[in-house]
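Support request from a user on the community tier.

User writes: "When I paste my structure tokens into the form, the page sometimes reloads and wipes my input. The last time it worked, I copied everything first. Here is what I submitted, just in case something in the input itself triggers the reload:"
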């Protein structure tokens, strides 16, 4: 895909590029590095101002083909022969109780900072299934979203659904609940939000893949569960987590000297390397996670997402990273909420039979999460504008100015 488009594959394109030996190393330009340095200084001032006042309160998503949305459009107009458009392209399925995938139960308050829930059984039978059978998500047609990629070995269509079912089980042990700040005497939720806001801008300037950002935030949260961190060391934890995530996800991670520079030389190379060792030992070298972005890519494919829905979903999901309270929800739940809000905003049905089949959530499960996301977004600090600034550019469709649907 050309450089003018805001979307590229986060993994597949890189694999193909490396195999062709056409991937060139990307360096941080001096202008970008200077911009990051200014961001760093502003972030440090914000964190310092807050601590003195105790009363204060990716351009790498795949662009899905704009196929006609047979099962997800709000209205389907029959052709002259009485058949619906695309009726011959999809396989009709009767969604009875035996083939509807389960919803993931919402996380309940627990003492542990990690989400520990028993794996949900497949299939799942809803208690109120009789009352919701007339909903469109149960009566519409289900598309086979992997059929067109069956001949592409990189898509692994034979077992991709098994992979995501495993992700749904794995996310419960790699997710963190918002209780760990109670054991952190030197930092608070506000300081975490400032750090994440800074990392969003640094991630954008370095042109890293979306998975790197989500893995970075997860590493920070899991490390803070285990280790107490002082305020001067919080940024060191953040930039080191970015280094670890970049080494895991990127072909060419940022150089150590660049990370020292963006921190305004507040830390030396030796300090970053020592913190890297500390973090990895604390996490027992368990870095692999099923991130919200991984679920989002799958759900967007099931949603027959066009460019607008992709951009809106990314904007909404990136905004959840700054919220400490939204750690109550699993990554798959947040991804589903982002897709639901994006579909409602552009005027489509909120949920569809295809999303029900491949996401494993029904609309009634996702709506409470979507309301929580909107609530956090409306109450977010106006000073933390990194996500809004990113998605206000034409490169991302200027979707930050699009009013979201709050009427539900």
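"...and here is what came back when it finally went through:"
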């Amino acid at each position: 895909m050309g450089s003018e488009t805001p979307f590229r594959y986060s993994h597949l394109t890189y694999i193909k590029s490396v195999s062709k030996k056409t991937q060139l190393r990307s360096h941080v330009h001096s202008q970008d590095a200077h911009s990051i340095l200014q961001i760093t200084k502003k972030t440090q001032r914000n964190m310092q101002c807050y601590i003195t006042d105790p009363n204060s309160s990716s351009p790498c998503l795949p662009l899905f083909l704009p196929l006609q949305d047979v099962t997800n459009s709000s209205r389907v107009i029959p052709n002259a022969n009485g058949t619906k458009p695309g009726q011959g392209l999809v396989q009709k399925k009767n969604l009875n109780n035996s083939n509807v995938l389960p919803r993931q139960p919402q996380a309940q308050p627990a003492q542990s900072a990690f989400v520990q829930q028993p794996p949900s059984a497949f299939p799942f039978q809803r208690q109120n299934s009789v009352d919701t059978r007339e909903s469109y998500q149960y009566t519409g047609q289900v598309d086979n979203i992997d059929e067109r990629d069956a001949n592409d070995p990189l898509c692994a269509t034979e077992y991709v659904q098994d992979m995501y079912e495993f992700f749904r089980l794995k996310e419960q042990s790699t997710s963190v609940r918002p209780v760990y700040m109670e054991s952190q005497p030197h930092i608070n939720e506000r300081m975490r939000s400032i750090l994440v806001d800074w990392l969003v801008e640094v991630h954008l300037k370095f042109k890293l893949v979306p998975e790197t950002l989500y893995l970075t935030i997860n590493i920070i949260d899991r490390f803070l569960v285990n280790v107490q961190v002082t305020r001067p060391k919080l940024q060191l934890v953040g930039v080191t987590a970015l280094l670890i995530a970049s080494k895991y996800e990127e072909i060419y991670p940022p150089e150590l000297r660049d990370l020292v520079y963006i921190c305004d030389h507040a830390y030396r190379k030796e300090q970053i390397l020592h913190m890297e060792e500390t973090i990895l030992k604390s996490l027992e070298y368990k870095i692999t996670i099923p991130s919200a972005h991984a679920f989002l890519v799958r759900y967007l494919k099931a949603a027959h997402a066009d460019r607008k829905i992709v951009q809106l979903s990314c904007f909404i999901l990136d905004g959840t990273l700054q919220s400490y309270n939204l750690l109550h929800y699993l990554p798959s739940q947040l991804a589903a909420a982002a897709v639901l809000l994006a579909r409602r905003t552009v005027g489509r049905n909120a949920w569809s039979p295809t999303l029900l089949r491949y996401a494993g959530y029904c609309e009634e499960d996702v709506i409470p999460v979507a309301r929580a996301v909107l609530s956090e977004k409306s109450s977010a600090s106006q000073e933390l504008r990194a996500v809004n600034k990113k998605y206000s550019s034409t490169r991302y469709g200027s979707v930050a100015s699009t009013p979201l649907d709050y009427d539900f």
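Agent notes: The reload is a front-end session timeout and is unrelated to the input. Residues 1-30, 48-112, 115-132 have pLDDT under 50 and may be disordered. The chain has two domains: 29-58+185-282, 129-176+290-401. Escalated to web team.
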